[in-house]
Design goal:
Elements: H1 63-67, H2 81-85, H3 103-116, H4 146-151, H5 186-190, H6 204-208, H7 226-239, H8 274-279, H9 314-318, H10 332-336, H11 354-367
């Protein structure tokens, strides 16, 4: 089974940002801002172009085919438009696809291609010029590159981590109502804005990125503040949103590296919570990072054929499995998550191994897959 790794903008939830190429002239045109599990009425409400047919919640366009009856909630029949545009083979029974060259489908496919490292070539000319490159190296007054600004954020709290202030979070948003790290855009409509522990909410990072929706009562600070600029840079890479740093951000020292959240144990039998297990994966390699072994990667999968970090499910069908540098591939993390597809010749280890459990926990949060730690 192929699945989409998305989280969260706002998901998103990833971390260890690298200055990898953001692949598509279409990705900047996507209409929806909702991330996985966000409520939706139609595919165009969702970042990944898939409003699950059975649930009315945003979903990965591949996993929705096998779990949610396809995409296309609100339509007479489901579709697998984005999955088909990405040349993924599984479609839900009864799926009826539209014009795969439409800008909405193409932009969603470009977004997913970047997110999950899936090869994708647009099939229609872009309606708008390409987004500006993610770095500003023209020498204008010492303005740092987007990648340089973003780098310091990777050690901070990921989405759903407990936080006291915005500066505790990778995406620069500690949700006002919940005290948990959140995507800076979705927090405006779902969580009362950002700025937990402040007298009033804010939409600082969203505004710095040129996004217009702010929570009621939001009071913004100085958008050239180095911390806001760094968070905006991180989100711009994560969600392929064009962003040009302000010159004032050059004076910023990198944010201090925050320690991983303490591993809290549940009361029953000392079994760690999913979030506590997942926390240790945050500093590891992001998808497409070079790796030698599975333990180098956030998602616990160093693709067998490529030696690059990959999603543990898609690696089974695209990359010969996980386990680069081992005599045989494995599908350890996929199996720990209850996913059934394994690469040919896969030989699994002990699924209760702490490293496998931690990676499975990370992926379960990233892709909203149910998981109970062993």
């Amino acid at each position: 089974m192929k699945f989409s790794a998305a989280f969260i903008t706002a998901a998103l939830y990833v971390v260890s940002v690298s200055a990898h190429e953001l692949p598509s002239r279409y990705a900047g045109q996507r209409r929806g801002n909702q991330f996985v599990t966000g409520p939706c009425q139609q595919d165009s409400d969702c970042q990944q172009g898939c409003c699950a047919f059975n649930t009315g919640k945003c979903a990965g366009p591949a996993v929705a085919q096998t779990r949610d009856g396809g995409c296309g909630h609100g339509s007479p029949a489901p579709n697998c438009n984005v999955a088909a545009a990405l040349k993924l083979s599984d479609c839900a029974p009864g799926a009826v696809n539209g014009d795969l060259s439409s800008p909405a489908i193409q932009s969603a496919a470009a977004f997913v291609a970047k997110l999950d490292n899936i090869p994708f070539t647009p099939t229609a000319p872009a309606a708008a010029p390409p987004a500006p490159p993610a770095s500003n190296n023209a020498g204008g007054g010492g303005t740092p590159t987007v990648a340089a600004l973003a780098a310091g954020q990777s050690a901070l709290g990921f989405v759903t981590s407990a936080c006291a202030t915005d500066s505790d979070c990778q995406q620069g948003c500690c949700a006002f109502n919940t005290g948990k790290c959140a995507g800076p855009a979705i927090a405006q409509t779902r969580d009362g804005g950002c700025g937990h522990s402040s007298p009033a909410p804010n939409c600082n990072v969203a505004k710095a990125l040129g996004l217009n929706e702010c929570a009621a009562g939001a009071v913004n600070g100085n958008l050239q503040d180095p911390k806001i600029q760094a968070a905006a840079a991180f989100v711009s890479i994560l969600d392929n949103i064009p962003f040009t740093p302000s010159a004032g951000s050059a004076a910023a020292a990198p944010p201090p590296a925050a320690a991983a959240p303490p591993a809290s144990n549940n009361a029953a039998g000392g079994t760690k919570s999913v979030s506590a297990l997942a926390a240790s994966q945050s500093p590891l390699g992001f998808v497409t990072s070079t790796c030698a072994t599975d333990s180098d990667c956030q998602q616990g999968c160093c693709a067998f054929n490529t030696g690059k970090c990959a999603g543990p499910a898609i690696a089974q069908t695209r990359d010969g499995g996980c386990g680069h540098s081992s005599p045989a591939p494995n599908c350890n993390v996929a199996k720990a998550l209850g996913l059934n597809e394994c690469a040919a010749g896969a030989v699994n280890g002990n699924l209760q191994d702490p490293k496998i459990q931690a990676a499975a926990a990370f992926v379960s949060i990233l892709d909203n897959i149910p998981f109970t730690p062993a």
